[in-house]
Amino acid sequence: MNDNDESVLAEVLWFPNEIAITVLNWVFRVFYIVLFGSVLCFFGLGVLSAADNSPIVSIYLESSVKRVPLNHVNCSKFQKYQINGTSGGIKTRTVQSQEAKGLIGLKNIGNTCFLNSVVQCLSNTKLLMEYITSKQYLNDIRLDTKGSLMKAFGDLIQNIWQSSSSCALNTGSFKNQVQRYAPRFDGYLQHDAQEFLRYLLEGLHEDINRVTTKQKMVLPDISDDLTDNQKAQESWKRYLRIDNSKIVDIFVGQLKSTLQCTTCKHCSTTFEAFWDLSLSLPKTSGEISLSQCLELFTSEEILDGDEMPTCSKCKCRRKCKKRFLIHKFPQVLVLHLKRFSPSERYRKISVAVDFPVNALDMSQYAAQSHTKAEYNLYAVANHNGTASSGHYTAYCKHPQTAQWHHYNDTWVTTQSVNDLVSASGYVLFYEQISSTRL
């Protein structure tokens, strides 16, 4: 064998070894990549689970109305739990052994956090919950409307309170009835929770309205010769001739509106029903109190320029003073904090509003002196994020155990009463203390 033959043989013997080494290198690379990825995935899921109630995570999941948001695990033994401690700053959770009813999450079926938040607040409205779980509402459903929305809502609330399963509930059937009643909620766009609440309550009311035939009649104006109490009573009677239901019994109150002409000093008084009070936030630096918002709502407002009304005595447009006070307090008082500026459509007012949890004294905003009206907070609909991208959750006090919980779509956790006040509070639900009811 000559030198050339030995060289060729060496190349032939070396070539397979190079292939084997290359293949082994790639195998080890893939192995390390998979191992490293698994470790990242393990810790990443742990952090995400620990931060599931974080507004940042929730907002990211729903940051685009074009994308159906992700859901947490929809059905497992970990659906309902309580926070029992911390480990390295991350909260750990254990399953509750004996839980009260009503602690069931709702699936987010596509930007429906606004719906879930409102439903959980209404589910923890004791008067409404008892009305539904006792099935009394079935006797009140009108035959002409068939009560499709009320039935769907009743089924959902009964499943929340009477289901033996801990699985998060699908709101698809209920949402279908909502969008049949109010097509504006069709599809999977994000919506305003307070607006949805108003539409929902009005729809439920229509299905169980005790007034089955609404007569179209033109009633004369209420005489100015009557006292304010007589005017209020007559106005309320007229309202109930058209709208009278269990929903009205629970949620509707009556406002007194006073209009005084600055020229002739004539004062005209009218009374109107209200389902909630929308409160503007005072323009001030720092934290705002709920009492400041209520004082702003009931303070005197000057109507001038294009806003000048017609004085009934002068028979022409005059500069007037206008003021609202509460004449009839509802059993459930819903307060809407106007965080979204009407003048700047895409700006949210993200300032903390301090509100009392117990003994909210509303007597100073009453139309009648010596009126006693106190309320306790039982639910808060929260909005985290901006005007264009956000996420709704709810804080609710259990009507039986008085324990506060945080409802975040499918997740239900215990909530400290000391952490209810934040810059996210959007709709506040107060129940009147029975001893102060008129």
UniProtKB/TrEMBL annotation:
Transmembrane segments: 30-51
Keyword Transferase attributed: no
InterPro entries: Papain-like_cys_pep_sf, Peptidase_C19_UCH, Ub_carboxyl-term_hydrolase, USP, USP_CS
Start and end residues of each USP domain: 104-433
Keyword vocabulary terms for this entry: Hydrolase, Membrane, Protease, Thiol protease, Transmembrane, Transmembrane helix, Ubl conjugation pathway
An example molecular function term from Gene Ontology annotations: cysteine-type deubiquitinase activity
Catalyzed chemical reaction(s): Thiol-dependent hydrolysis of ester, thioester, amide, peptide and isopeptide bonds formed by the C-terminal Gly of ubiquitin (a 76-residue protein attached to proteins as an intracellular targeting signal)
BP GO terms, sorted: protein deubiquitination; proteolysis
UniProt keyword Protease present: yes
The EC number(s) this enzyme carries: 3.4.19.12
Pfam families: UCH (PF00443)
Family: Belongs to the peptidase C19 family.
Protein name from the UniProt record: Ubiquitin carboxyl-terminal hydrolase
